[in-house]
Design brief:
- There is one protein chain.
- With 127 residues, this protein is mainly α.
- The chain has 3 helices and 2 strands, in the order ββααα.
- It has a two-stranded antiparallel ribbon.
- It has 2 domains: 68 residues, no CATH class; 37 residues.
- β1 and β2 form a beta hairpin.
Length: 127
């Protein structure tokens, strides 16, 4: 696939993400993974397998865009094909493990919320 990425040289604070042109995104149709500097390019590589709702052709275009941006910003990429980055996150965690971790996280958040309420009540006692 041909790359559609073009460097975006305008620096400074943008008011909205919508101010960026489509050409700075790895996935221009979906406007996912903006690449305006080297850190964004590395992030796009790291999150490549986490993007949902895209076809293999779109992944191929995105990889071409990432390679072009990486070359422009001086980022080394060892992968030669997008398939080396994958389609799905490879966390090696089963569905049951993820569910257990989510429940533990929810319990921790609930516990912390209760602790904060008690601490706030002690700090501001009613008269």
């Amino acid at each position: 696939m041909a790359a559609s990425w073009k460097p975006h040289e305008k620096q400074g604070r943008l008011s909205k993400r919508s101010d960026l042109p489509d050409t700075v995104f790895a996935y221009p149709k979906q406007r996912k993974e903006p690449m305006t500097n080297a850190a964004h390019v590395r992030n796009a590589v790291a999150r490549f397998d986490q993007v949902d709702g895209v076809s293999d052709a779109e992944r191929s275009t995105a990889f071409a865009n990432i390679k072009k941006a990486a070359k422009h910003y001086g980022v080394d990429i060892s992968e030669q094909d997008w398939k080396q980055l994958g389609r799905k996150p490879s966390t090696r965690r089963t569905k049951a493990m993820r569910k257990k971790a989510a429940a533990a996280g929810a319990a921790t958040r609930k516990k912390r919320a209760g602790t904060r309420k008690k601490t706030a009540a002690k700090a501001n006692p009613s008269r």
